[in-house]
C-alpha cells in the first residue's frame, strides 16, 4: 500500500505538532492492525503533560519509525534517555515520553488500537 503524506488524515493539530494517522495500514500479527503515521513536531514539544493520566503517565504503545529530519529524545519509566536524529531508524517500546530537541519530521508505524487511544487522550488534554 502506498499513500502520500497529504492524503493521511490529520488526527491532531496544535501549535508545534501535526499528527497524521492512516488506520488499517497493515497487520502486525500479535498486535493486530497497524497505522502509518507522519508526525511534524516543533523543537520544545514535550509529551509529559499530554500523557498524564495514562498508565504510568507514559505512552504505552510501541512504535517503529524513521527520522526524516530533526532530533528527538525519549525518556522511559526508569529515567533512561535515548536520542534519535536525521536518518535514524528507531523502536520506542511501551512506557515512554518524547521531547523534541530540533524541529522534526518522523514516520512511525504503531499498533492502531493502542496508539489511537493515546492520540485520543492527547486530543482530550489539549481540547483539539
Tell me the number of strands.
Answer: 7
Question: What is the number of helices?
Answer: 1
* Uncertain segments: none
Residue share in β-strands: over 45%
Radius of gyration: 13 Å
Structural class: mainly beta
Order of helices and strands: EEEEEEEH
| End-to-end CA span | 29 Å
Question: Helix share of residues?
Answer: 10-25%
From the spread of the alpha carbons, the general shape counts as globular
Query: Main sheet?
Result: 7 strands, antiparallel
Quick synopsis:
The chain has 128 residues and is mainly beta. 12% of the residues lie in helices and 52% in strands. The longest helix has 15 residues, at 112-126.
Description:
With 128 residues, this protein is mainly β. The chain has one helix and seven strands; from the N terminus they run βββββββα. It has one helix at residues 112-126, and strands spanning 10-14, 17-28, 32-41, 63-76, 81-85, 89-92, 96-111. Strands 1, 2, 3, 4, 5, 6 and 7 form a seven-stranded antiparallel β-sheet that branches. β1 (10-14) and β2 form a beta hairpin. The longest helix is centred in the last third of the chain and has 15 residues, at 112-126. It is globular, with a radius of gyration of 13 Å. The N and C termini lie far apart (29 Å).
Characteristic terms for this protein:
128 residues; mainly beta; seven-stranded antiparallel β-sheet; 1 helix; 12% helix; 52% strand
Helix and strand topology:
Layout: E1 10-14, E2 17-28, E3 32-41, E4 63-76, E5 81-85, E6 89-92, E7 96-111, H1 112-126
Antiparallel strand pairs: 1-2, 2-3, 3-7, 4-5, 4-6, 4-7
Amino acid at each position: 500500500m502506498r499513500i502520500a503524506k497529504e492524503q493521511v488524515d490529520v488526527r491532531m493539530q496544535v501549535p508545534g505538532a501535526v499528527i497524521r494517522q492512516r488506520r488499517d495500514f497493515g497487520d502486525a500479527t500479535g498486535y493486530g492492525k497497524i497505522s502509518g503515521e507522519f508526525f511534524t513536531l516543533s523543537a520544545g514539544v514535550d509529551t509529559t503533560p499530554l500523557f498524564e493520566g495514562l498508565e504510568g503517565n507514559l505512552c504505552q504503545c510501541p512504535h517503529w519509525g524513521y527520522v526524516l529530519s530533526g532530533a528527538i529524545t525519549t525518556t522511559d519509566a526508569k529515567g533512561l534517555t535515548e536520542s534519535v536524529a536525521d536518518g535514524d531508524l528507531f523502536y520506542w517500546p511501551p512506557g515512554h515520553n518524547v521531547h523534541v530537541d530540533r524541529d522534526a519530521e518522523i514516520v512511525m508505524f504503531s499498533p492502531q488500537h493502542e496508539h489511537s487511544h493515546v492520540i485520543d487522550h492527547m486530543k482530550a488534554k489539549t481540547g483539539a
